Amino acid sequence: MKSKKMNEMKGLGKFGYLVMGVLLIASSCKTNVATVNNRELDELQKIIAEVKAEYAPDSRVALFDVKANQTNGTYVLKGESNMVSAVNSLKQKLNAEKISFKDSIILLPSAEMERTSEGIIKISVANLRSAPSHSAELVTQAILGTPVKVYKKDGGWYYIQTPEAYLAWVDYGGVTPFTKNDLSTWKAADKVIYLETFGFAYEGANTKSQVVSDLVAGNVLEVLGEENGFYKVKYPHGKTGYIEQADAQPYEQWISGLQPSGETLVETSKTLMGIPYLWGGTSAKGVDCSGFTKTIFFLNGIILPRDASQQIHTGVEVDTERKFENLIPGDLLFFGRKATDSTSEKVIHVGMWIGNNKFIHAMGDVHISTMDRDAEDFDEYNYNRYLRTKRLINEEDSELIYLNKTNIYNK
User: Which residues make beta-bridge pairs with 7?
Assistant: First the structure.
């Protein structure tokens, strides 16, 4: 067959060779164009990765989910982000490289949530999940009165961001979307913070009246007045109730009286003794290891990053060699797998030093362990996976939020 074709071309003489040459050149041009396009697409993908690494290295606290597709010879940027600066940086870099593109990136909040892009957690403890489903992983919790950003909606679920920037999904029963004016009004209102580990709000100023809801330490509610030793309180969605004054304190009074120290942290930590371990838990209803330390510090006016692998990057390092005599109450101890030539360090667990060779942590439940190798209850398991200790108290750190220096709950 091949020789027949060649004979046919020979029969065409010079014209045949000319046609063959044109076909070969056209084929070569196509290959070159495809190569150029592939290189350009590779460069585009590289730029997207660079921007993501710069602006959203931790997907738990920053969203930059952007991809590039080629449609009819045009690069189309698709996906979503909650960071205008990251999207603008991407577009600037592509323009600098003279890469043409169509911008179809969705900036959050979505158009649906643009008016009500703020929100307040409206139940004692809201479970926040990795996806809009009750079967999805519990990644964290947020407690009553916590202001959040509301980015988008999927059915009965809202995608939100907590004050420590954690991103997750909460169902409609856990949050009340607010306008910016709503939030401003809420912040300006007088509020109380609930300080007992567990408790209840009632329909009337009487503990024998109908229960309105349960409450946990750290819940913040608008206060409408006082009656018979009770505060009349208002929930973010308008429901009202009464809580015993002995169990709460005016928020501004609480804030102004805070003097966090190792001693106050230890005192707070012991009120949570015996609470069961709960993956994703950050409340008196259940805590994981970092949720426990986060709760202790919050009740002393300091918001920590959510996870142990984030908390380890706060404060100043005070020990890496098990010189526990250098530790003071309130220091955070981190545990996990040390880095090797082939693997990176992995932070798995965190606890808080309480003095006398002991630390308190959530593992099974909240309990106290000892680093004293001669003690009967020596915690050999955690001793062997000890990484380092960080000190947060009285240390300035951009990763820590001090409630007496911010207006998260008030104006």
Answer: none
- Check if the beta carbon of residue 308 is closer than 8 Å to that of residue 347: yes
Helix (H, G, I), strand (E, B) or coil at 407: coil
| Closest of 206, 126, 188 to residue 160, by C-alpha | 126
For residue 193, which of 48, 298, 327 has the smallest C-alpha distance?
A: 298
Q: What is the CATH number of the domain that holds 238?
A: 2.30.30.40
DSSP letter assigned to residue 55: H
Handedness of CA 327, 330, 336, 339 (dihedral sign): negative
Centroid of chain to Cα 87: 20
The residue to which tokens 């912040």 are assigned: 187
**How far apart (Å, rounded) are the C-alpha atoms in residues 218 and 101?**
48
Q: Are residues 205 and 176 part of one domain?
A: no
For β-strands 125-129 and 191-194, DSSP reports them as unpaired
Q: How many CB atoms lie within 10 A of CB 249?
A: 16
Q: What is the CATH number of the domain that holds 349?
A: 3.90.1720.10
Rounded to whole angstroms, the Cα distance separating 330 from 390 reads 9
Hey, what's the torsion of the CAs at 211, 212, 213, 219, to 10 degrees? -120
14: in domain: no
Q: To the nearest 10°, the Cα dihedral for 335, 340, 345, 351?
A: 10
For the beta carbon of residue 303, count every other beta carbon within 10 angstroms: 20
Q: Cα Rg for the chain, rounded, in angstroms?
A: 29
Rounded Cα distance between 50 and 234, Å, is: 47
The closest alpha carbon to 175, from 231, 118, 221, belongs to 118
Do 274 and 376 fall within a single domain?
yes
In this predicted structure, what is the pLDDT of residue 398?
92
pLDDT per residue as tens digits for the range 45-61: 999 999 999 999 999 99
Give the residue numbers annotated as catalytic, written as ranges: 289, 349, 361
- Give the residue from 61, 91, 107 where a domain finishes: 107
pTM flag (> 0.85): yes
Confidence of residue 108 (pLDDT cuts 50, 70, 90): very high
